[in-house]
């Protein structure tokens, strides 16, 4: 299991699993994308190189997920898989996704990831992320 929803009033709160920053970031990407549109409805025919440098892992996670939402909004591409490296507050690699079909229904309209109750704890095998809907 890559993630699970946790009860939260008004927003989506997810717990993603992974014992490394790499796994937590990859699973956070998958979880958010799958909550927007079930991955099974998408192809994997688009790729994009990505590089983000921030002062800490919290900023890196929020920026990474915000970038994914930006690409969805501006390019109509939902990235949901990745081959990334995450170390020293830097994320680099390739993300994979699909152009969103015109007739697909969105499960959730996610506005942004938040810093509210954000926890990134690879040493404890989880991260908790609240997504504003």
Q: Give the averaged pLDDT, no decimals.
A: 96
Q: Give the strand tally.
A: 8
For this structure, the CATH topology is: Archease, Possible Chaperone, Chain: A, domain 1
How would you name the CATH homologous superfamily? Answer: Archease domain
Provide the domain count: 1
Indicate the structural class. alpha+beta
Could you explain how this protein is built, in words?
- The chain is α+β, with helices and mostly antiparallel strands and 133 residues long.
- The protein has two helices and eight strands, in the order ββαβαβββββ.
- The protein has one domain (3-103): 3-Layer(bab) Sandwich (Archease, Possible Chaperone, Chain: A, domain 1).
- The strands form two sheets. Strands 1, 2, 6, 7 and 8 form a five-stranded antiparallel beta sheet that branches.
- A hairpin with a 5-residue loop joins strand 1 (3-6) and strand 2.
- Helix 1 (21-36) runs parallel beside helix 2.
- The chain is globular, with a radius of gyration of 14 Å.
Write a short abstract of this structure:
The chain is an alpha+beta fold. It is built from two helices and eight strands, in the order E-E-H-E-H-E-E-E-E-E. The protein is 26% helix and 38% strand.
């Amino acid at each position: 299991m890559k993630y699970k929803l946790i009860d939260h009033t008004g927003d989506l709160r997810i717990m993603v699993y992974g014992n490394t920053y790499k796994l937590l970031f990859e699973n956070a990407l998958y979880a958010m994308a799958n909550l927007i549109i079930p991955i099974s409805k998408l192809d994997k025919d688009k790729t994009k190189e990505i590089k983000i440098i921030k002062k800490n892992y919290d900023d890196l996670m929020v920026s990474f997920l915000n970038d994914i939402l930006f690409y969805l909004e501006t390019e109509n591409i939902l990235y949901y898989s990745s081959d990334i490296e995450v170390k020293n507050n830097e994320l680099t690699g390739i993300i994979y996704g699909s152009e969103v079909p015109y007739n697909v229904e969105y499960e959730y309209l996610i506005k942004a990831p938040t810093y509210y109750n954000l926890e990134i704890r690879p040493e404890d095998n989880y991260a908790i992320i609240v997504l504003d809907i």
